[in-house]
């Protein structure tokens, strides 16, 4: 693998879109590249529902990553919207970081993404992820993608174990054009506080449930209010599921489920916000949210 050297004194900058199948590890990789927990992560597919920006600033310059929803072949309304969020983020990108899961066979979905990416091959970097998983076929994946995209850089990484990340940064900074920083040095995301709070709550909820339930959940922040002269922050939120029966699963026996979600979310919110966070979390059912244009427009943009 050829690793480039960066000339001292040139400041680089680029917008980099991450794309790949659901659960390929895009969000984990972006968090690792930026050195902060920015995008939420879960074992269930289709965790990311929006474009989420993560910013990496170092002496070489600044890279702005755009994490996207996993590219998924389905014609359900929610999925169609997620797909359009991903594909439209490709044209605007200076570079594209294509994340491939080396522990799963490629199939129609992967072929579909590869086909879309052919026209963008000059600005493509392929990260073969999950190389920590025993029995993964990363060598075959590298050969396949090097043949498919002769001008792209293809390299093995493990986002989970933080392997190959420095090499990946080196390649990204090398491919980035010279340019000014787009954000102040201390920024690592541009997400609104309300969105970050709702995402953290959703992450804690979807990591506690299985099967179809993660997809049925969304979080609505009713209000966020500073108290005690800016020392405390009250967040009132609703965890919304589709059916009454799902409410019971999320709440759990004697409320243990919802309590665990609240405690875990509050702990993480306390790290992110410079206040003592009090989270008031309730569960509601709304059977039609995944087909409701108004709700989808508010949630997915
Ligand atoms: N073993 C292993 N697991 C990983 C690695 N990277 C991510 N994962 C796991 O894969 C699952 C999905 O990770 P995400 O980062 O949410 O994947 P994603 O591509 O953003 O998924 P969507 O947002 O649903 O498209 C999580 O359980 C991660 O912990 C890796 O390098 N090795
Ligand atoms: Mg994601």
Describe the structure in brief:
The chain is α/β, with parallel strands linked by helices and 301 residues long. It has helices at 26-34, 77-91, 108-117, 138-148, 165-175, 193-206, 244-251, 256-272, 293-299; strands spanning 12-20, 52-58, 61-67, 95-101, 124-129, 153-156, 177-178, 218-227, 232-241, 276-285.
Describe it.
With 301 residues, the chain is α/β, with parallel strands linked by helices. 34% of the residues lie in helices and 24% in strands. It contains 9 helices and 10 strands. It has helices spanning 26-34, 77-91, 108-117, 138-148, 165-175, 193-206, 244-251, 256-272, 293-299; strands at residues 12-20, 52-58, 61-67, 95-101, 124-129, 153-156, 177-178, 218-227, 232-241, 276-285. The two termini are 38 Å apart. The mean pLDDT is 91. The chain binds guanosine-5'-triphosphate (GTP) and magnesium ion. Guanosine-5'-triphosphate binds at residues 20, 22-28, 41-43, 45-48, 69-70, 129-130, 132-133, 158-160.
